[in-house]
Amino acid sequence: MIKKCLIVAIMAALLVTRGLACASDEAVQEQINELKDQLRKMADRYETRISELELRVARYEIKASEEHAHGEDAHGHDEEVPGQSHHHGLLGGKVKPIGAIDARFVRVEEGKNTLMLHEAKAGVQADITDWLFGFITFTKHHGEEVEIEEAYARLHFDELGLSAKPGKFFVNFGPENLAHFFDRRTITLSAMHEGLFGHEPWADIGVQFDWKLPVDFYSNLSFSVVNGNNGATYGDGENTVSNNNLPIVLDWTNVFDTDYGLFKMGPSFSWGQWDSNDKYNVYLAGGNAYYKIGNFDAQAELIYRYKEQMPGVGGKNAYGYYVWGAYAFPLDYKYLRAIEVLGGFGQFIPDMRGRETRITPQISFIINDYAKLRATYEVRDQSPRDRKDNRFISQFALAF
């Protein structure tokens, strides 16, 4: 519209110029030339301004499409929940208090019933500048002390497609490890995750670098150097960890949004050393794939771990896998946005130690973006000990 007005104005000025030139009036000709210059300068300014605005709009559209494709929540973790779109920061503004509560009722087969506050967290996230984001959360797990769960800054260098994240954060090794309990699709972590990383997400101190590759689809390459403070992976399998260990972690995530659905997939790799007088190498290799079409989505993840034989430490090889699929039934109801049914299956197989298997059927009632009620009957089996401790768990999760 602006361009059309400028063209009309310039044509009008040229017509006036042509009429006045016939009068051979030098003074008038000077005024006409001056008017031409002013119009040219004005047109140049408007063209420059329009180009700048178009570039800004294009950048916002690219950023929005990447976040949608990658499925990032406000924490910067990649999880997309059908039937809802969860965003922390209900109070708005650049500095946002955030938090979540996980209340559970647990009944263990042939055991007692337990009603408890399983986890509570509170923190702050801040869009400090256009290129600097800060995040910190304090977490209290049932029966444990308050701890700093995550505390990091994220620096964006948009021109280069790079970002850096120093601090304490969930290590970018597979999608299950990145999700907080509210964003996690299942109430509990899988047998694979608990066997390889423990009963909580692997959070570590270090620095993570991300590079969005200059390709037509979303492709992110992540490189981290962390402290290795995870006894299950970089330790003796219990609580003892290395005092001289800085593992590196690589993750490559690719997203393809097609007419046949959204595909997200990529490999992960980690290498470090466990130091017990002598150094022993530890390797992790994994891969994951995610698919979503309409209200259905599914995910599969596989992780393999190899530890060089260490004195006093058990089997050196271990692997696990985990698959789930879910379908959400959207509802146009005041107090219920969607009902989701999910089924999951996972195993953890340590070398020479048997097998841990879990089957997790689940139903979720998505109340709104900030509240959900979920229930599962978790079938748990461990062989060769033939231990069965099946559990019914219901969860009320609330976030702000």
List keywords for this structure.
single chain, 400 residues, alpha+beta, Porin, 2 domains, 17 strands, 18% helix
Q: How would you sum up this structure in a few lines?
A:
The protein is of the alpha+beta class.
Explain what the structure shows.
By secondary structure, this protein is of the alpha+beta class. The protein folds into two domains: 59 residues; 320 residues, Porin (Beta Barrel). Helix content is 18%, strand content 51%. The chain contains three helices and 17 strands. It has a 16-stranded antiparallel barrel with strand order 1-2-3-4-5-6-7-8-9-10-11-12-13-14-15-17. Strand 9 and strand 10 form a beta hairpin. Helix 1 runs antiparallel to helix 2.
